[in-house]
C-alpha cells in the first residue's frame, strides 16, 4: 500500500528519470564501452562525460525556458540570442583590447538587452509571447551577421579556451558553470517567494494582480533571465569552436529547450516550474543524440529516430497513459482482494 502511494505521489518525477535510465541502458547494450569512464592526465573521459559536456549549452537555455514557460510564455528567440552573444564575444576579442571579463560582461549584457526587449513586448505591450519572441528569432541572426559582417570570426583566448574545453577537478569547466547556474536558480526559485510568485502569475495572472503581485515585472524578469541564460550558452559555444558562426550558432536549440521542459512534465499553459526535471529532459535529449551518432545509423535517419523515441517517451509520460496504468493496477489490486475475500468466505462455509 505504501509502495503504491509512493509511486502515485512521485510518478511525475519518476517518469523522466526512468526514461533516462532506460535510454542509457539500451544504449549501453548496443554500444560497447558506453558506460566506461577513463582518467587521462587527471581528466575524466567517456561517453557519459561527453553527454554532460555537450548538454551544457542546452541545459543553460532550458533553465531560462522553464522559467518563461512557468509564466505561461515562450521564448523562441534564444537561438538567435546565442548567435548574437557569440558574435559579440568573437568580435570584441579580435578587434579590441578588452580584458576577457569585460568581453564576457558585454556578451551577457547583450543577452539581457535581448531578454528585456522580449519582456517589454510581452508584459508592457501585451503582445503574444510566441509572436513577440518570433520577431527577435527572425531578426536576431541578421543582427549577428551584421556584427560579424557575414564572416565566421575566429579568435584565440586562453581564458575562453578554458571555458569552452578546459577542465577543473577532472570535470569540464563548462559543466561546473552549468551546475553553478542550476544550483543558484533552484535556490532562488525554491528558497524564496520569487518562484511561487512566478508560478502564480502563470496559473492565473488576473488573480495574482488582485493579491498584489507585480505580474508585469515578474514576466519581464523571466524573459531577461532567459536572455541571460542564452547569452551564457552563446559564450560557451563560441569558446568551444573558438569562433562565431552567425548562421549556425544555436540553430534550433530553442526547440530542444522547449522539449526538455515538456519532458520534465511541465505544461505550456504555465503555472509550474520543474527545474531539475528539465535538466533530466536535457540529458534525455543529449543521450539520444549521442546514442544515435554512436550506433552507426545513417545520418539521414538520425532526426527521424530521435523524434520517434522522444514521441514514445512523451506518450509514456502523458497523463492519459499514467491514468490508464493507475486504473490497470487498481483493477488488479481489487481483483486480488476479491479473490482473497471469496477464498476466506469459502473457508468459513466449509467449517462444520
Automatic annotation (TrEMBL):
GO terms for cellular component: plasma membrane. The chain crosses the membrane at residues 52-69, 76-94, 100-122, 129-147, 167-189, 217-237, 249-266, 273-293, 299-316. Residues 332-352 are annotated as: Disordered. InterPro entries: ABC_transp_permease. Coiled coil: none annotated. Keywords: Cell membrane, Membrane, Transmembrane, Transmembrane helix. It comes from the Bacteria. One of its GO terms (molecular function) is transmembrane transporter activity. Belongs to the binding-protein-dependent transport system permease family. AraH/RbsC subfamily. This is Monosaccharide ABC transporter membrane protein, CUT2 family.
Amino acid at each position: 500500500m505504501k509502495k503504491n502511494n509512493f509511486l502515485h505521489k512521485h510518478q511525475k518525477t519518476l517518469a523522466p528519470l526512468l526514461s533516462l535510465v532506460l535510454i542509457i541502458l539500451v544504449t549501453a547494450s548496443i554500444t560497447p564501452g558506453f558506460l566506461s569512464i577513463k582518467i587521462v592526465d587527471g581528466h575524466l573521459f567517456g561517453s557519459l562525460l561527453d553527454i554532460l559536456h555537450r548538454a551544457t549549452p542546452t541545459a543553460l537555455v532550458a533553465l531560462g525556458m522553464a522559467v518563461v514557460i512557468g509564466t505561461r510564455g515562450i521564448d523562441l528567440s534564444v537561438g538567435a540570442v546565442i548567435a548574437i552573444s557569440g558574435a559579440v564575444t568573437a568580435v570584441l576579442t579580435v578587434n579590441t583590447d578588452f580584458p576577457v571579463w569585460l568581453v564576457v560582461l558585454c556578451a551577457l549584457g547583450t543577452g539581457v538587452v535581448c531578454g528585456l526587449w522580449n519582456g517589454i513586448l510581452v508584459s508592457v505591450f501585451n503582445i503574444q509571447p510566441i509572436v513577440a519572441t518570433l520577431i527577435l528569432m527572425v531578426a536576431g541572426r541578421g543582427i549577428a551577421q551584421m556584427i560579424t559582417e557575414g564572416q565566421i570570426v575566429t579568435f584565440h583566448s586562453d581564458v575562453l579556451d578554458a571555458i569552452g574545453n578546459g577542465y577543473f577537478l577532472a570535470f569540464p569547466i563548462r559543466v561546473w558553470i552549468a551546475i553553478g547556474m542550476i544550483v543558484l536558480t533552484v535556490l532562488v526559485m525554491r528558497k524564496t517567494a520569487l518562484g511561487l510568485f512566478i508560478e502564480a502569475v502563470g496559473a492565473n495572472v488576473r488573480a495574482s494582480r488582485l493579491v498584489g503581485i507585480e505580474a508585469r515585472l515578474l514576466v519581464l524578469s523571466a524573459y531577461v533571465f532567459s536572455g541571460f541564460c542564452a547569452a551564457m550558452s552563446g559564450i560557451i559555444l563560441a569558446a568551444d569552436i573558438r569562433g562565431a558562426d552567425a548562421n549556425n550558432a544555436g540553430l534550433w536549440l530553442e526547440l530542444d529547450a522547449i522539449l526538455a521542459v515538456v519532458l520534465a512534465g511541465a505544461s505550456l499553459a504555465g503555472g509550474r516550474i520543474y527545474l531539475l526535471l528539465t535538466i533530466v529532459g536535457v540529458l534525455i535529449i543529449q543521450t539520444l543524440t549521442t546514442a544515435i551518432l554512436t550506433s552507426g545509423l545513417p545520418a539521414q535517419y538520425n532526426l527521424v529516430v530521435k523524434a520517434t523515441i522522444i514521441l514514445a517517451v512523451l506518450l509514456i509520460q502523458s497523463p492519459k497513459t499514467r491514468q490508464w496504468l493507475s486504473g490497470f493496477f487498481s483493477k488488479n489490486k481489487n481483483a486480488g482482494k476479491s479473490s482473497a475475500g471469496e477464498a476466506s468466505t469459502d473457508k468459513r462455509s466449509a467449517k462444520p
